[in-house]
Structures are given as C-alpha cells and as structure tokens.
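re: ur question from earlier - yeah i can do the single chain one, its not a big deal. heres the input i used so u can compare w yours
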Amino acid sequence: MAEEEKKSEGKTETKAKAKAPAKKNAKKKVARQVPHGCVYVHATFNNTIVTLTDLNGNTLAWASSGHCGFKGPKKATPYAAGIVVKAVVEKVADFGLHEVNVFLTGVGSGRDAAVRALNANGLSVLSIKDMTPLPHNGCRPPRARRI
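and the output i got, formated as tokens:
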C-alpha cells in the first residue's frame, strides 16, 4: 500500500509541474511608419514576384503569383500580376506607405500590369526603372550544326 501511495503522489507532482503559468508581459509589435519605399517586380515567363522594401532595402512584404494561388501557365498572366500587387499592398497597409519607386526585372507579361496595379491600389509611383540584365555580347554561341 505504501508503494501505491508513493506512485500516486509522484503522478500528482508531475501533473503539477506540467502546468506552466501563461506569460503576462507580452510586448506588442509596433509597426514603424515608412512613407516612401521601393517595389521590385521580377516578371519571368513562368511567374511574377513582387517585393516591397523600405529605402534601405529591408523587405516589408512580398508575394508571388504561385503564393496567391495561381498554378501552371496562369501564374505568368497580367491578371495574376495585378492580384499579387493587391496582396502586397494589403500586407503593407500598416506601414503607411504612399510613394514608391518601381524597379522592373525580366521580360514576362506581368511587368506593365504590376505597375498599373500599384497605381490602382493607392500607391503613387514616383519612378520606374528597368533593371533587366542585358549581355554585352556575353557567351560564345554554340557551333553551327553540320547536317
């Protein structure tokens, strides 16, 4: 009997130790105000990725057409680019962003649609710069085929 009481006492002790008090002093995250930022639009033949940053390059929010639920060839459409921009602007609403500089990369069909969607969603576009890399006579082409 004494052994049974010890076992039962041990169980009650472990149950009491398992319960931990909840933290009372959780700090709230304060959203900093960023009135001016940069938007990087990476438009490829297969996808469109939009990243919104502050002037130092710290990412505030990002989204891609795959992230927004589009699959397959629908990811590279102008409509998908508009939805992606809408999702990014909704994420950044707490930062108080009003003016953006746009940097475009790639040759996809979502380029123009993304810039138009930025303007339609309440952000004023200050400048647009195309950052697509172009080769200055880059790599040597493959040899001509002999048939």
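The longest strand covers residues 36-43. not sure if urs matches, ping me
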